[in-house]
Amino acid sequence: MQNNEQTEYKTVRGLTRGLMLLNMLNKLDGGASVGLLAELSGLHRTTVRRLLETLQEEGYVRRSPSDDSFRLTIKVRQLSEGFRDEQWISALAAP
């Protein structure tokens, strides 16, 4: 028996926070420090550091040794490679 109702799950807080940091870095030209990202996000500096180190380990951000700031890598752009304009257009054009 199929249930057409969607099951509601709690969001994964760590994923939400990591995506928030990626969005912030995308808007901040030249990268950002842990302190600035903590201030803008309202997260504790230690939390921001751990999230950034995880994103760095996965290849989505890199740390600049000269000023200890974090920047996005090309791997972030690869996330959109599976996106097709036709899907976006058909979603907008739906009645």
TrEMBL record:
SUPFAM superfamilies: Winged helix' DNA-binding domain. Residues 12-74 form the HTH iclR-type domain. GO terms for biological process: negative regulation of DNA-templated transcription. InterPro entries: HTH_MetabolicPath_Reg (IPR050707), Tscrpt_reg_IclR_N (IPR005471), WH-like_DNA-bd_sf (IPR036388), WH_DNA-bd_sf (IPR036390). It holds the Pfam family HTH_IclR. It comes from the Bacteria. PROSITE patterns: HTH_ICLR. One of its GO terms (molecular function) is DNA binding. This is Helix-turn-helix domain-containing protein. It comes from Escherichia coli.
